[in-house]
Design brief:
By secondary structure, the chain is of the alpha+beta class. The protein has helices spanning 7-11, 19-33, 42-58, 61-69, 92-101, 118-121, 135-140, 281-286, 345-357, 364-372; strands at residues 127-133, 142-153, 169-170, 179-184, 187-192, 201-202, 215-226, 235-238, 254-260, 267-269, 272-279, 288-293, 298-303, 312-315, 331-337. The strands form six sheets. Strands 10-11-15-14 form a four-stranded mixed sheet. A three-stranded mixed sheet has the order 1-9-8. Strands 2-7 form a two-stranded antiparallel sheet.
């Protein structure tokens, strides 16, 4: 019997570690041992699988409680290379709720309901992974490689969990229902079958490769099409690309969360992009034609004479695509007047000449308005 793995030790955190500490430790180790950064290194790939499995358990409150108690799938481990199969959390408890309340139980990670087979109810878990994108990839779309730690049907038993030449048997305790009913007064409480642990079947002769789980841990490599217009934190669903279902049942889905690198030029403002465009003082006063960047190249904009600091000019419909639609946002250009921090003698002389010519006081009206607001209505001047 294989030893119980110490997932806290795998991630290098204490048993009282917070969710945030577990997440940080996982991300640090996942980056270090990711298969894309360690091509051909089998040891790094195995370490990546261990780290991912540890995070899968410790990042889920219910799984972590079960692991800390040492019960359920965490209490003991079968032989072979398969070991613990996290997909055993997929749908069994949903079956119990369905039997109790006669409806649908569970969320995206394992739905049950009338008319569905036990294999459907034991569908694989949904997985979630992150992908790093440049700003251009997010705006224009891209195809990116992914390496996702997951499980796949055991190649020896083809997902049945039974030794080749044999097959799982109907559980004699629950007769294939997966639950046992216990009467307590007027109530009847259903619990996972103590013999088959909710699967409805028992394996008398387990597969030597996977130890009866029907699955093996692996790293699935995919190329994912990222649609144009994704943002930081967008979630892309890939149906059927998640965890393999228990003993050959339906796989779960894979959700890809985008992490988008900031652009040094473009800033998101709602569905639009904004660019800060510096203007010299003469350009702001007299007007000019200036060259500005777009998401596909460059354009020339006309700056009107007397343009004020903070004035915004738009190019409508020339911004980023709106995710899920054909429309596009706008490009907003915010003009800011570039005031030099120091002047050469020649520049200082030019500024002095300009101030003598433009010798009005632009604050006079401001001061008059402020003075007038302090006098009561109808007061003698």
């Amino acid at each position: 019997m294989a030893a119980r793995p110490d997932y806290y030790k795998v991630l290098g955190v204490g048993k009282n570690a917070s969710d945030e500490e577990i997440k940080k430790a996982y991300r640090k180790l996942a980056r270090k041992y990711h298969p894309d950064r360690n091509a051909g290194d089998k040891q790094a790939e195995e370490r990546f699988k261990e780290i991912s499995q540890a995070h899968d358990v410790l990042s889920d409150a219910e799984k972590r409680k079960a692991y800390d108690r040492g019960g359920g799938p965490f209490g003991s481990f079968g032989g072979g290379t398969g070991g613990f199969d996290p997909s055993s959390f997929g749908g069994n408890f949903g079956d119990i709720l369905s039997n109790l309340f006669g409806g649908t139980a569970g969320g995206a990670r394992g739905r049950t309901g009338p008319g569905r087979t036990r294999a459907d109810q034991q569908r694989g878990r949904d997985l979630e992974t992150e992908v790093a994108l440049t700003f251009d990839q997010a705006v224009n779309g891209a195809q990116v490689p992914l390496a996702v730690p997951t499980s796949q049907p055991c190649p020896t038993c083809h997902g049945t969990g039974a030794k080749p030449g044999t097959s799982p048997k109907v559980c004699p305790v629950c007769n294939g229902r997966g639950v046992e009913a216990q009467s307590q007064g007027i109530f009847s409480i259903s619990q996972p079958c103590s013999n088959c642990h909710g699967t409805g079947t028992v394996i008398e002769d387990p597969c030597p490769t996977c130890g009866g789980s029907g699955a093996q841990r692996t790293v699935k490599r995919l190329r994912v099409n990222i649609p144009a217009g994704v943002r930081e934190g967008s979630r892309i669903r890939l149906a059927g690309k998640g965890e393999a279902g228990l003993r050959g049942s339906q796989p779960g889905d894979l959700f890809v969360v985008t992490r988008v690198q900031d652009s040094p030029v473009f800033k998101w403002v709602g569905d639009n992009l904004e660019v800060e465009v510096p203007l010299t003082i003469p350009e702001a006063i007299s007007g000019a034609v200036v060259e500005v960047p777009t998401i596909s190249g460059r354009k020339r904009l006309r700056v009107a004479p007397g343009t004020k600091h903070g004035t915004i000019q738009r190019l409508r419909g020339e911004g980023p695509p709106k995710l899920g639609g054909k429309a596009r946002g706008d490009l907003r250009y915010r003009f800011v007047i570039d005031v030099p921090q120091s002047l050469s003698p020649e520049q200082q002389e030019a500024v002095d000449r300009l101030s003598r010519v433009m010798n009005g006081n632009p604050r006079a009206r401001l001061l008059d308005d402020a003075r007038g607001s302090k006098q009561p209505s109808g007061a003698a001047s």
